[in-house]
Amino acid sequence: MKNYKELIYDQSHVNGQWVSGGSGTFKVVNPADGTEVATVHDADVALVEQAIQAAAVAFGPWKALAAKERSVIMYRWYDLLISHKEALATIMTLECGKPLVESRGEVDYAASFIQWFAEEAKRVYGDVIPGFTADRRVLVVKQPIGVVGVITPWNFPLAMITRKLGPALAVGCTAVVRPSEETPLSALAMVALAEQAGFPKGVINVVVGTQAAATGKLLCESPLVSKISFTGSTRVGQILSSQSAFMLKKLSLELGGNAPFIVFEDADINAAVRGAIAGKFRFSGQTCVCVNRILVHEKIYDQFAERFVQAVSELKVGNGMEPGVNFGPLINKKAMDRMELLVSDALAKGGELLFGGKKQDNYFFLPTVIGNAQANMDFAREEIFGPIAPLFKFKTDEEAIQMANDTIYGLASYFYTQDLTRTWKVSEALEYGIVGVNEGLISSESVPFGGVKYSGKGREGSKYGIDDYTEIKYVCMGNIN
Ligand code: ADP
Q: Is 288 a catalytic residue?
């Protein structure tokens, strides 16, 4: 078992080798105290090209293995990820500020995708279709799509990668992974364990560096890359989509959200408060399914607001490495400055500051509650991606649904009610890929995660997660007389 220092690497991992990549170095900084965690070699595009070539060469032999052989290697990787949970969680907290308890949870979550898809690898079933004439027989098979370009953000430094690599590797694809420059260390530790698990060289390549735009363009435009799988902002998703358009390259896009959290007048208020805390303040509000707008029925608004503010005041703010801390810093100064702007915009337009609202040392921004939120405030339209919880009022179900859907995004949504008819009607009316009913935590490897509208396309996890990494081939056999 390695301790966390033994799992810190400072180079890209290409074709089974640690390589520096010729573009100088960059620093990884701990957002909780500003200290340097590591200096990492910055990969240039030539190294990304090498990684693509390596993945293309590795694709043939990897897809030729029996599904069960791929599954065995994936299982070994799963075991290694779990047995190094403490080391991986420590690296994650140091590089992104996530409280250690959440980082441990993320290692479990990340590993669960490898375990799930190690199982699914053996179940990529095809079909036999009745022949359309008496002498024809028809088969349908699913084949791996090819080399996958994986581009991921810093908010889940491991899980956003394994959620893509799980299905890709299971079906026989190989990959070039480009993690966020804010969190390269988790990705490098992960690939070191993958190598130990026995993945052949070139199957998983990780390039770390600051040249995000050039790397993205190369992955999108390379004829050797068959698919791009991206998690991040809608803006970058649009760039990748347009860069991939000429080659008609397949894309899976997990983009921004603007999750509504509706509390109807018959809701169990304590359960709703717990759900809102979990759904809003996980990783200080920096997840794409984080609650963005809390819509509360006017009859219970005061009661909910009071209990919610009380619960927010009980969050323990601090360095994620300290025991008991469940609310850490934001990722960087830009994120913190943005929170300040969102709060001042809301207060200038009549919002009431019910809690927090302030920056602290390093990149800390206090958990914040704004009452009397209105549709013209910036956070009503924008993804907050931080610890601000705006409380809006509504009068009728129709109004709540209209407010909830009044956004370009459509990833996660939540509502609390005890009424069965309302549960069905509202679930059906919400224009979102994910609906949490009386539940604020909705992520698991076993469910199809993904959005509609500007939140992207494709689904990750579950049996549906396989589909984005396969092509369907139909085989017609004739003259069977
Ligand atoms: P976030 O706000 O979550 O950081 P981004 O979309 O900015 O979302 O970043 C997600 C990932 O996309 C990161 O790894 C980032 O470095 C990368 N990225 C940023 N700009 C581009 C680009 N033009 N092309 C490809 N990747 C990019």
A: yes
Strands (E) across 258-381 are located at 259-263, 291-297, 352-355, 368-371
Catalytic one among 173, 220, 288, 290? 288
- Euclidean distance between CA atoms 389 and 372, whole angstroms: 11
Query: Could you report the per-residue pLDDT of 71-118, keeping only the tens digit for each?
Result: 999 999 999 999 999 999 999 999 999 999 999 999 999 999 999 999
Spatial separation of the C-alpha atoms in residues 127 and 24, rounded to whole Å:
51
DSSP for 184-200, written as a single string? HHHHHHHHHHHHHHTPP
Residue 480 lies in a domain: no
Residues 28 and 120 occupy one common structural domain: yes
Pocket perturbation via mutation, ligand 1, pick of 95, 96, 177, 180 by most ligand atoms within 8 A of CB:
180
344: domain range? Answer: 259-444
| Residue 340 lies inside a defined structural domain of this protein | yes
Rounded Cα distance between 370 and 354, Å, is 6
Enumerate residues lining ligand 1, CB below 6 A: 151-153, 180-181, 212-213, 216, 232-233, 236, 239-240
| Assigned token pair, 32 | 């909780």
Q: How many Å apart are CA 157 and CA 346, to the nearest integer?
A: 31
Helices and strands, number each (H, E), in the chain: 14, 22
Q: How big is the chain by its Cα radius of gyration, in Å?
A: 23
pTM, 2 dp: 0.97
Judgement on whether residues 340 and 460 belong to the same structural domain of the protein:
no
Catalytic residue flag (residue 96): no
Q: CA 471 from chain center: how many Å?
A: 24
Which residue's CA lies nearest to atom 7 of ligand 1?
233
Cα separation, 95 vs 188, in Å, equals 12
